[in-house]
Design a protein that fits this description.
protease; single chain; glycoprotein; Rossmann fold; signal; 18 helices; 565 residues; AB_hydrolase_fold; two-stranded antiparallel ribbon; eight-stranded mixed beta sheet; alpha/beta; Extracelular serine carboxypeptidase; 12 strands
Amino acid sequence: MKSVLVPRIVFDEFISGFHVIEPSLVLLLGLEFKMKVLRTLIGGLAALGVGVGVSASAAPRWTSKRAAKEAYAPHTIDMPIDHFPESSRYVPHTNATFKQRYFFDSSYYKPGGPVFLYIGGETSGESRFSNLQTGIIQIMMEKFNGLGVILENRYYGESYPFNTSTTDELRFLTTEQTIADNAYFREHATFPGVNASLSGPDVPWIMYGGSLAGAHTAFTMKTYNDKFAGGIGSSATVQALLEYPQWYTPIMKYAPADCVSRIVNIIDKIDNLIWSDNKAGIQAVKEVFGLGSLSSLGDFAMTIAFPIGGPMNYPTNTWQELNWSPLYGSSDFWNFCSNVTNPSPPENISSVDTALAKYTNGEAWTGLGNYANYIKQTLLPMCTSGRIDSTDPGCFSTQNQTYYADVTNSAARSYLYSTCSESGGYQVAPAMGPSLLSRAVQIPYTQQWCTWAFPSGRFNSIPATPALHYYNKYGGWDLQAENLALIDGNTDVWLDLCSHSTIAASGPRISSDRFPSYLIAGAGHHWDSYGIGDVGAEPAYIREAHYWEMRTMGRFLEGWGERVG
């Protein structure tokens, strides 16, 4: 769901419903960008079966049943930049509009059918095409004879209000402006070639969004409920918190126990060296990972956490990129754990486990050789310049203030701005207890990126820490809205920012006919959004979630007919 910016951005290309990541452009932070952008990585990593048998997988390119269909044509709507001309928050105001893109599929549409609006979230509209082809929107279109449409989020894809993204120009990138776009689109959208007007109040519209877009769906249903027949917020991150160490909780709980315990013990030893300011020991462990020249302890901590999921930043597939379907998921995390727990590594790797024992009172660092070898074989080759402590493509430093000040329009910059200004969710190590991430990573590590990226402008400045009240005013964990369904997965790293959070003060969410909700046991981040073109052939736990969504949307559509009478 969440992503933040670092100096090595992954640019994604989306081709016929699948996307390819350019291997030389290695990093995107990933609420979701994070979430989906990093689904395929360097195919050549699969050949790295050296030493411990390192391997990494990329999600296979897939061909949908509708692969022969030409790419969806982009359309645009003239969207007001400023929906709130009376609010002092957006002074100076503007009456200007920008071209906001959308894409639609009318192949299932029959007169009288509903419109299913997919909220694009923090990526380009093209990246969501699979939802029209085999995913949740295709499922709903086929079931209800509807039209499906993807609305690209403001400040993403090609839907930028301005030519650059200065701090002043980003002042219109807020939650309330974004959800106002959804309501405006519902009332003004046109669909060329469709012999019907679908923006009238008699036409039922159903929204769907996953992750950050799921939160936007929920907030839209809360604020503009009379305009929509219903909505589904999937893995909707409805609660904003400044820090979010719980990102690692599902991994601690559900990943292979021996893999978790080895990493936790290694991190404990590293942190003890840091706490005791043992410079020789710190340098020695950095050298073991091949990162001896990396000057920032935060950058070192983040880099070795990449296979797990670094603090809003990682170049490889992680726990979050697991998926019920091999068409979309990756086994990289399982390969990582398999390497870390390999019981029979060659001697040159196993000997590393005792090489640093002099810094831990003779205690071995079990699994260190395996862990370090994986990092050296899969991550270090990405830094093709060899300048480890730099912001060169694929390298591992984030300490580059000039880079962050680049005002070029980009999804990563837009996401970072939202993170810094409203939503927070900084992935840090927990204050107490076991950790998969070094305690060197705390709030200041991420906050410095905000400071560097967004210097005060003439009309706008970011707060010292995110102004969470702008995001939480819709209800946070306790958000409820008529005809809003909320669905989550219990192994999702973003679960504790969602409605089924395990840390919400109000306790577990209970479903009702009025406020339906569903927790998919064994599922990750908005796994219900994916499909294979045949619901009946899906794994039972996904199939039943899709059947529940269809039943729920059926009730919402019936209710809309009664509402508009």
